[in-house]
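Running co-folding for tryptophan.
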Amino acid sequence: MTSSSSAPHRFLTGITTSGTPHLGNYVGSVRHSVRFSQRADVQSFYFLADYHALIKVDDPARIQRSTLEIAATWLACGLDPERVTFYRQSDIPEIPELTWLLTCVTAKGMLNRAHAYKAQMDKNLARGDDPDADVNAGLFMYPVLMGADILMFNAHKVPVGRDQVQHIEMARDMAQRFNHLYGEHFTLPEAEIDDAVATLPGLDGRKMSKSYDNTIPLFAPRARLQKLIGGIVTDSRAPGEPKDTQGSAVFDIYQAFADHEEAEAMRRAFADGIGWADAKQILFERIDREIAPLRAHYDDLLNHPAQIEKILLDGASKARAISGPFVTRLRHAVGLRKLDDRPSAAKAKSGKTARAAFKQYREADGLFYFKLLDAGGAQLLQSLGFSSPRDAAQAIATLRQQGTDALPLLAEQLEPVGDEKRQAVSAVLQELAADAAASEK
Ligand code: TRP
């Protein structure tokens, strides 16, 4: 799951602010992403998907409460807002703007096939209703808004549950289509699934989800946690009868918290006929051992909403330092331009012609990057982050000297270069070498 290379990666994930965080969110998303955010070679973006929440929730107080709870959850679980970019989706006005740009490169037919929309349609059809009964256009557009979330920050990896993989594929599709039409602006994102704990079963054995009303709130007080765990469905085998781990919600939830040895011990206990009450007690203690210290921190944070508000606003300004200039560039790319802005004519007048070039720059993560642009400004190469400008310059020098032969050497330092682009890269590097030789004379 984690790549062995030390190449930096941008990592992004959001949680919809439609309810109270539960164990499934913790196991499937929060825990993994907090751990990941602590890696030195990763730049991460975490956000509260409150625009997404409006699709399902029309209770304003619930949206606000959920936003507070989910923010507090992330912080209590160890997310460090100094290290990562932590923000609320609706504080970034560039996101709805990008949503529109992407909407216009997204095939309606693709959205027709999105799972969430299709599920609702199938339900309607089964009931003999109009297929679009109770479907708002927000549900239909959900994948485009999500695409904008991801592409805005050019995320490489998006950690999600299996049920979200289709959305990431759609985001790739939008990025590809946009890049094809308007030049290389977007990184193609990939889903990252933690296979060990992709989805957690809920109280009734189905996926733990707000929509099934089968969740265990992550920070339920101890007594309530115990009571809820007592209510997880089991079969009716008596103590002493061997039990199946396969398909057992009690076992699956335990496994998501336990280490390998603990899980094996539980497996043996099942085979030896442990009673359900005992198994649930062990499960309860195991979860509580992990959650109790976080719960105290969470309760404290909930009592200080102003503090969280400030953290989110600081995060938004960090995010907008990226999204603002990026959307300006995208607007220009699609032709939403000032009428007197005619770059090629202006340049011709000043006697300069546009040239391919390496551009070096620093990003909000403090790392140093470069890219290679062709004469038209389209991006041919994009580096990953270097810790010093000298290292970035060194990689550029290697490319200048060795041309495309340097690409395998620099595989860890560059975003992958598709075959279709190699030729262009090669041509531009030759052109630059010729220019350099000419100016030396
Ligand atoms: N759709 C995700 C969910 O409900 C939340 C989400 C919105 C998201 N935008 C995202 C997740 C971008 C990852 C990346 O769980």
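Result summary
Residues 12-16, 49, 52, 146, 149-150, 158, 160, 164 surround tryptophan (CB under 6 Å).
The first strand starts at residue 9 and ends at 16.
Job closed.
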